[in-house]
Amino acid sequence: MDELHGPFVRKLDALGPLQTADKIALAAIEADAKYVQSGTDLIRDDDRAEGMIVVLEGFACRYKRRKNGQRQIMAYLVPGDVCDLDALDLNRMDHAIGTLSNCRVARIKPDVVSDLRLRPAVIQALQTAARVDEATLRVWLVNLGCRSAVERLAHLFCELFVRLRSVGLVQGNSFLLPVIQYDLADTTGMTTVHVNRSLGALKRAGLIGRKGKHLTIFDMPRLMSVGEFQPDYLYARKQVGGRDHSLPNGTAGLTATDALIPV
Amino acid sequence: MDELHGPFVRKLDALGPLQTADKIALAAIEADAKYVQSGTDLIRDDDRAEGMIVVLEGFACRYKRRKNGQRQIMAYLVPGDVCDLDALDLNRMDHAIGTLSNCRVARIKPDVVSDLRLRPAVIQALQTAARVDEATLRVWLVNLGCRSAVERLAHLFCELFVRLRSVGLVQGNSFLLPVIQYDLADTTGMTTVHVNRSLGALKRAGLIGRKGKHLTIFDMPRLMSVGEFQPDYLYARKQVGGRDHSLPNGTAGLTATDALIPV
DNA sequence: CGTGACTTTGAGCAGATTCAAGTCTTGTGG
DNA sequence: CCACAAGACTTGAATCTGCTCAAAGTCACG
Fold this sequence. Notes:
The structure is a homodimer. In chain A, the strands form 3 sheets. Chain A has a 4-stranded antiparallel sheet. By secondary structure, chain A is α+β, with helices and mostly antiparallel strands. In chain A, a hairpin with a 2-residue loop joins strand 9 and strand 10. The first copy, chain A, folds into 2 domains: 7-136, Jelly Rolls; 148-263, Arc Repressor Mutant, subunit A (Orthogonal Bundle), CATH 1.10.10.10. The two termini of chain A are 15 Å apart. Residues 238-263 of chain A have low confidence and may be disordered. The first copy, chain A, is globular, with a radius of gyration of 18 Å. Chain A has helices spanning 7-15, 20-31, 110-116, 120-146, 149-166, 181-188, 192-204, 220-227, 256-260, and strands at residues 34-36, 41-43, 52-57, 60-65, 71-77, 82-84, 96-99, 103-108, 170-171, 174-176, 208-211, 214-217.
């Protein structure tokens, strides 16, 4: 059933179980989307922003630029991810959002957002999504603050694997990673050259492989261990009156072997 | 008038103008606080948490620990800062909160929080505070991701200056910074040794000075420029129906010279 | 099949770490 | 109130991780 819906519906449904009417409302939004080229700014720093933006295909990111032009990517927006602009105080961006690849993007107008906000399950799901985004930000801070180059990349790939899997974009042990090494560099706070060398190290160790824009994870348990990846932060672990995301084996979150099993 | 109140009331009043009754309710919370020793965990990772925690004196921090024991500090909680535990989904911490110095801390029980939430101005202020915290997290990510050691420290000191000034804890150009170099290291993602050397560089350049636990900023404009500090993110720039925080000169936020003028 | 964008590789360099020793501060107990 | 001990800070030397600059190789697309 879920496979009939796009990533936006899938993601929100996973966060706060939606009703059929909710899904229909969200599906209408997915239908009304535009294609955007790689390297396009969806929102600029300092923009006065309203409504929401949803990524349906491709990768986008939140980023800031320093005066010298250096870019720091602060979050990836993968299909299903939403950026709630009304949730900013003062509706003013303190960072920009841009596409890392060609994307299909839906912009939701403020009045449509207002309609959505009449749906309790949708509100709940959006709030949970915002919390997960915040937790992710904290995890990234740890990543930059105290992990080595190889560890940072390993962690990033584990995170993307789990996130993309939840919207059905993982096939077997591989997924489409439509970003260039330059983007990975600005994400992990290193140079392209060093990203390249660290990727090489991960490949040589037999943990990952890359063919074109596809990333394959050959050894997820070891990759998780290298990146010290604990996926708990990506899940709403126990919702008030909601469902429980813990796994059958009793361990909170995902274990190394679980992660290898495609959903 | 404000000087009669503690930092909690001061801070929230600055964020979303409070009514007298609100202030009285908050002042009652400030009155009921406990002293806590440096190095105490107020909340541990994985704790099931409720209520709120307010720091009234001293410095605390949000932090995570890696398996190898390394600590990454993700936020400072200075007097007036609040940690809303009910706002977590699932009331489960994905990080810990601990004191960096001796502190005076108020724990607000869930039922008292519920009472507070009946006050619209308080809700508004707390939400704004949460937004500022999130924006701060993003700025810290940039700090770790693409600034040098000296730049990171410069940025951090500028931020603390502005935050502490807003709760009246800056005297002239100096403030109490009750943390050790080890803490600064875990904040900026470097080693104590390198923190020490970078502090030395800032001192030798005549930008800052340290006497005991007091940090003095001798040349704020240059310090801001070294850290590329733009304080906008610390302010609620335009509230819906609230007051405007932009400065007379029309520049959003604080200019270099403004920052030198004690409030 | 050529051009531009992306990736890979090498060599030398710089910023940050590690290890280690020594000095200064601070708090505590006698 | 002093002396001692523990904690915090400072400094040096060697090392290492990641950076810069530069060039060559590969891939995709018109």
